[in-house]
Amino acid sequence: MDKRSWAEPYKIKMVxxxxxxxxxxxxxxxxxxGFNTFLLKSExxxxxxxxxxxxxxxSDRQWAGLMMGDEAYAGSRNFYHMRDAVSxxxxxxxxxxxxxxxxxxxxxSQILISEGDYVPGNMYFTTTRLHxxxxxxxxVDVIIDEAHxxxxxHPFKGNVDISKLDQLVAKVxxxxxxxxxxxxxxxxxxxxxxxxxxxxxxxxxxxQHQVLLVHDMTRVAENAYFIQQREPxxxxxxxxxxxxxxxxxxxAATMSxxxxxxxxxxxxxxxxxxxxxxxxxxxxxxxxxxxxYGGMAGRDMExxxxxxxxxxxxxxxxxxxxxxxxxxxxxxxxxxxxxKPFGGHAIFLNARAILPHIPQSQxxxxxxxxxxxxxxGIRSMERGAxxxxxxxxxxxxxxxxxxxVRLTIPRRVYTQxxxxxxxxxxxxxMQSADQVKxxxxxxxxxxxxxxxxxxxxxxxxD
Length: 462
Ligand SMILES: *Cc1c(COP(=O)(O)O)cnc(C)c1O
Known about the structure:
alpha/beta; Aspartate Aminotransferase, domain 1; Aspartate Aminotransferase, domain 2; 17 helices; 40% helix; binds pyridoxal-5'-phosphate
């Protein structure tokens, strides 16, 4: 036999016990949570696939780093370690720590966006778009059409359609476009990568129109791994080299280090322009903290510096994405409709196809996530009409093409057996899909409504 399996490039040193619940307990829990998986208590969850944010397992070295925390108010040694890691692995010269990614988005949006501006991006992200809107801007989606099609198998669904950038500039003028925002491994498209070929074309476009290029680099290492696997000319480069090349094509970056970099909390804003750095320092003291800690403890900055290095190792990334792929393959083998190609951090279930009897106005993905929890104690997340929210100007519900449930895999946390149980549970929900009911809001928050919104089941005679 010539089979060569891969295995995790680590072994387990400590375990966290999980609680098992009964069907009755889970039914009561989801009602108490208003059918919103964000409102469930963690102790009532068996396998938690809500998010990959801040839930990764730190290495023994990162934990050791916590003990090296220098909790000085100003000039902590850990800040310099973090700054040096950012410039060594991500190329950016200046780093401003923030409490997490949205802290960096807030500062960047306030500095660069003026009332009436347009900010093109390769699909929106919830917090990113909101900060752009609060600063007076309007997000414009310039991702390729394939990204909105759950059945398209395009290898780089995160790519930008340059003609959409041209159309925007023809309509509003380059002076109304402060920057183009490019996410690597686009979360809302299903964890789909952008190619380096396309990113270079975006860079050229930005140079031609004198527009900045900002990088939402939350999952840059996962994007780099896909480039290594799929883009001609990159198979002999390391993830580390590709990460650096991606970053070096952009002017500034916002980072949620709770994802790729495997820490529980933290983020930063990074850039090469000194003037931009100075303005960011002026604002970070208002919203986050002094420019050498920005809302992070010294120990957390140390763990981040170590996590950055671990995140760009080829063997880490192979196991990381290999595990996500494994879950995708189990589901596909059982004929579950999933978004292809599989994403870097998650497998997305096509809720419209699984629950065809529920109209999108009754939030099929929200209902599917709730049903999966009741079935097995697995927590997932809605990524469809509830997450898309309402148009800030007209108040109308956005009705996105993608109505998905995200099974997000935390880094280095669960085993292959957990993935098997997850796939089996999804199949069981599908087998009794016709019993899942649509939902309506009983409480709808004005902003980011998916986090705290509450729902009730729609009865058929409603
Ligand atoms: C998580 C995330 C953010 C926001 O980061 P937080 O740390 O959650 O504030 C921004 N962009 C993308 C693509 C993300 O996934």
